[in-house]
Fold this sequence. Notes:
Low-confidence stretches of chain B: none
Largest interface: A-B, 27 and 36 residues
Mean pLDDT of chain B: 96
Number of helices of chain B: 8
CATH architecture of the largest domain in chain B: 3-Layer(bba) Sandwich
Radius of gyration of chain A: 13 Å
Number of strands of chain B: 24
Oligomer: heterodimer
Mean pLDDT of chain A: 92
Shape of chain B: globular
Strand order of the largest sheet of chain A: 1-2
Number of strands of chain A: 2
Strand content of chain B: 25-35%
Number of domains of chain A: 1
Helix content of chain A: 40-55%
Low-confidence stretches of chain A: none
Order of helices and strands of chain A: EEHHHHH
Radius of gyration of chain B: 21 Å
Largest sheet of chain B: 5 strands, parallel
CATH class of the largest domain in chain B: Alpha Beta
Helix content of chain B: 10-25%
Distance between the termini of chain B: 53 Å
Amino acid sequence: MQKIIANTTVEVTEQGYLEDFNQWTKEIGTEIAKEKEIEMTDEHWKVITYLQEKHKNEEALSVRGIKKSGVVNIKEFYSLFPGGPLKISTMIAGIPKPKSCI
Amino acid sequence: MKNLVILGAGTSGTMMANHLSHKLSKDDWKITIVDQYKTHYYQPGFLFLPFDIYKKKDVKKKGEKYLPKGVRYVNQKIDQIFAEENKIKLEHEYLEYDILIIATGTKIAPEEIEGMKDKEWHKSIFDFYTYEGSVALRDKLRNWQGGKLVVHITEMPIKCPVAPLEFAFLADSYFKNKGMRDKVEIEFVTPLDGAFTKPKATAALHYLLEDKHIKEITDFNIERIDNNKKIMYDYSGKEVKFDLLVTVPTNLGDEVIEKSGLGDDMNFVPTHKGTLQTKANKNIFAIGDATNLPASKAGSVAHFEAEILTENILLYINGKELKDEFDGHANCFIETGNGKALLIDFNYTQEPVEGTFPFPGVGPLSLLKESRMNHMGKMAFKWIYWNMLVKGIHIPFVSATMTKKGKKIEA
């Protein structure tokens, strides 16, 4: 379905994830974060950039991977994106949420 | 004489040895397969052992029996791969290769979580992804008086992502049959945002959890387990108490991959997703659970990969361009208990949908829908595995790449 985020029309899933990462802009990320009551800081963006790199390389996202990346430790990751850190950070990053096969 | 070496004699390695022994000239190529263990396990059977549906002999055979004559089978621990020198160090010897196939799989790493592999390990905390764990859990369940059973996924990716759900469904049936379902609470705890994570599957299958009274706890990223209190804690401080915890620990690639500098963060081998050539070296290929492909880690995936990898090895030997063909095809039966099962057929881009399989419009198997016929398919699969799949025999009517025919796909 279509949604207007930061004055741009984008395709999103029912849960609000971008269908096409190519439509993502920093403004869109900032706007999605606001909806989740998160004010983006440099620390937030570091995580987002890391996730987007992983996505471009078609690598799976895992909490262990984030721990090993050195970008942020898990406690900080939780405080940056309270609730469901991977679920929320991937939505802001414009990439699909981590999924299983069904 | 040239050397082709396969590391790992599990599902993938054994299949490749069988495929290639038929295709490569015995005068030109010597095939060697290395595995430290002499036993070949039917891993899908680990799901059934705890519930006394399968016996030990159903899941355990001599590896030798499934390897073709003329292939050298070396039972030694693999120490390190020296990719730049085309050489492998084993426990007692060095092997040189012209072509290497990595099929070292994935294994559980319970030591990654504080308190998981501790004094309650295999007492009230169990895995069912190893033969030992599965047998220990069977013995526990035989005498368990009831309480809170927690079925748990530590983190993704894991081998056979549907197995934990199947375990929860089969547990419901098992306790019903024992006349003690009212004494058991079942909780399903996942780091993802649901037991089902894809839209079509969630819509079609969420009723299973409700009907079976399985409580879902989502977005739970485990940090540690307190063995005395029998509580799991997640990073945000959430708690899940258990009497019996059946967990799928972190899955990692083999340590030899890490030692050889060929792995990613989880020791999986970065591999080209269409050709199965590794990104590190042109003469090294990887297959099955050992790869980092965004496909399910499952025997069916390895089976489809094996057909394409065999072609690509032959193309590589002849100096031709590799086929960029593997599409992530997976085909998995999912036990739902009470003699029923689901079947899903999907790939990198196509999520599981409803339909019929393998004959479009006919079946006899139905996709994404419970049926007794699917359960019979799952039970028949054990025979197919030992007699066709590991031997590299093509399974009729099931192609290596996914077909859209017979699937209800919205435009």
